[in-house]
Amino acid sequence: MRWAVLLRGLNIGGKRLPMPELKAFLEAEGGGEVRTLLASGNAVATFDDTDAAALEARLEAAAAERLALRTDWLVRSHADLNDVIAANPFPDAAAARPSWLLVHFHRDPAPLPPEHDGPERMVAIGRELFVDFVGGVGVSTLDRTMRKARWPMCTARNWNTVVKLAELTA
Known about the structure:
Distance between the termini: 10 Å
Strand order of the largest sheet: 2-3-1-4
Radius of gyration: 16 Å
Number of strands: 8
Oligomer: single chain
Largest sheet: 4 strands, antiparallel
Low-confidence stretches: none
């Protein structure tokens, strides 16, 4: 099965893993046809695993042991990513400002958006929280709101990356 592999917080906050090393790691873990995307912890690979949770746990444990990298790993299939794209509640943002439309990927159903007085639009659908950063990502105070609310583990990708990952998993 072909999976999009999303690492949380990679190449920020001291968690570094160059993409050639990520590729080699995934290959050593049985990944075939491995491709990385950008330098922020995105890869696509074919694994025999058909259970996402089991694959996530296996990759996390192996990365901690072999790479001394302790971070969260999330995986999504091509069908999962197509469902995310179809569910997008902000098609206007996807067309006008795709780098400001972020999808926050969760392991479990995404919690309801936190109360926030900023201009961002947020909708939780399934395991994803869609956030349209209307005024720009860099000036938003939403991250502080999420930390204060003890937001559960997730990793975010902008719309361009989500679409590209869907293409690469096909």
